[in-house]
Amino acid sequence: MKYLWCQVSLDRLEENINNIRNMDDKKIIAVVKGNAYGLGIERITEFLEDKIDYFAVADISEAKRVAGEKEILLLTPLIDIEDIINPMENVIYTIDNEEILEHIPKDFSNKVHIYLDTGMNRMGIKIGRLKYVVEYIQNNFPSMILDGVYTHLHNTKSRKGTLKQINIFKDEVTPFLDRIPNIHCLNSSGFLNEEYKSEADFTNNIRVGNLLYGYEGSDKGFKKVFSYKAKVINKFKVKKGSKIGYGEKYKAKEDILVGILGIGNIEHLGFNKDVKHNIFYDILKVFYHHIRKQYCIFCNDKPIEIIGRPNMNVTMINMKGAGDETIFTIDITPILAESSINKEYTYNDIQASL
Ligand SMILES: *Cc1c(COP(=O)(O)O)cnc(C)c1O
Questions:
Q1: C-beta atoms surrounding 331 within 10 Å
Q2: CATH code for 9-215?
Q3: Per the record, what is one GO cellular component (predicted)?
Q4: What is the pTM of this model?
Q5: Cα 240 to Cα 253: distance, rounded to the nearest angstrom
Q6: How remote is the CA of residue 157 from the centroid of ligand 1, in Å?
Q7: For residue 289, how many other CB atoms are within 10 A of its CB?
Q8: How would you classify the pairing of strands 205-208 and 27-31?
Q9: What is the pLDDT of residues 49-84, one digit of tens each?
């Protein structure tokens, strides 16, 4: 018997891809880092393989979990030289600094993309140095395939800053457009913005994650592909006037039926915005503005009253309007939720209500 699961609609994922294809003919680099934004990298990549052009991941261990033979762009800096001594055949490595070039074996024959720093100051080849790096690669690595150049738009909320970044990038890559096949800078929010998109018309790939999974773009028809579902594991009657839960904070205004859901703080229900700065912060940041302060449990689109506050593993709800077999929809985000929650993938399933 299952009480808590994450339903992932592959139909919607496909619709989102089709939506992108209808909007533009740039190649799609599907970003599947962070376990495909919490949705399960193995299954998501298996489904996407014949629908997108490349995958992108954050590290080699993720690359190993990608299904199929598709090429995978490794977004992180090349730090671990071990990774390139025995390179994975279908991995495209990112050259993000000049020093690393001295450590790469001269017979290195994988594809690489050069990452340019256009203002984020996180990593990247500095402006004005692309020509040097391209020549260095051509002169020293006869088998290395210079397949792409990219940069990252780190603050798409700032119009001025983003347009500046795109133009810095443009100036830098323009001399190489005939020699380097793949040029990219648009992420989800960049792609959704018409002005940025037209400014970046010299690019021919987009790198998108949020958009694929529907975290962004609802106003342009992109659909959330996941939904958490739960059934009550237990229920009991409580008399009017009784206090319920921690701190005796909740008092029943009438006789009520209390239901217990096996979901709580551990799954980030009741999560507040105090995200601690740890190693996952970088990934979390992408989602930061998607985290809603209000957590919610729904029954047929109607919000359900939470009794007290969600506890570590369980949450009590008022069962008013719900039945024994009611499947509740829980509004949490997969990237924050405990990844051990079972995922149920649906495809061609018109029942998949999200
Ligand atoms: C995560 C990431 C993306 C994808 O960003 P979205 O906002 O999810 O589209 C693109 N490029 C790089 C370098 C990233 O790290």
A1: 14
A2: 3.20.20.10
A3: cytosol
A4: 0.86
A5: 5
A6: 15
A7: 11
A8: parallel
A9: 999 999 999 999 999 999 999 999 999 877 677 777
